[in-house]
Amino acid sequence: MEFGFEHMNIHKVTAAHNTDNPASGRIMRKVGLDKEETIRHMIHNSKNQYKDCAVYGIIQKDYLKS
Fold first, then answer.
1. Nearest-5° angle of CA 6, CA 22, CA 41?
2. Angle at 38 between CA 42 and CA 55, to 5 degrees
3. 8-66 per-position pLDDT tens digit
4. Residues 28-41 pLDDT 10s
5. Residue 57 in 3-state DSSP?
6. What are the beta bridge partners of residue 54?
7. How many Cβ atoms from other residues are within 10 Å of residue 20's Cβ?
8. Cβ contacts of residue 36 below 8 Å, gap of 6+?
9. Which residues pair with residue 13 across a beta bridge?
10. How far apart are CA 29 and CA 49, in angstroms?
11. Three-state SS across 2-38?
C-alpha cells in the first residue's frame, strides 16, 4: 500500500474475502483496511452454493494520516 499511495498516487485500495473465512478479514484490518460492506451471494462455488463477500478498503488520505 505504501508504494501505491506514496509513489503511484492511487486513490483507494480495496480487498474482499468470503465471509466463511474470517481470518482474511482480520488480516485486512491488521494492514489498515476498514470493512465497508458485505455483498450477499457474490461468490458462486463448485458446490453450487452462493457465499457472501466482505469488502474492505482504505483511501489515500486516511492511509497517509496514519
1. 95
2. 90
3. 999 999 999 999 999 999 999 999 999 999 999 999 999 999 999 999 999 999 999 98
4. 999 999 999 999 99
5. strand
6. 17, 38
7. 12
8. 14, 55, 56, 57
9. 58
10. 27
11. HHHHHCCCCCEEEEEEECCCHHHHHHHHHCCCEEEEE
Cell of 33: 483496511
SS3 63: helix
Strand 34-44 to strand 12-18: parallel, antiparallel, or no bridges (unpaired)? unpaired
> In the block, which residue shows the cell 452454493?
49
Give the Å distances, CA to CA, from 29 to 14, 37, 39, 47, 50. Answer: 12, 13, 18, 29, 24
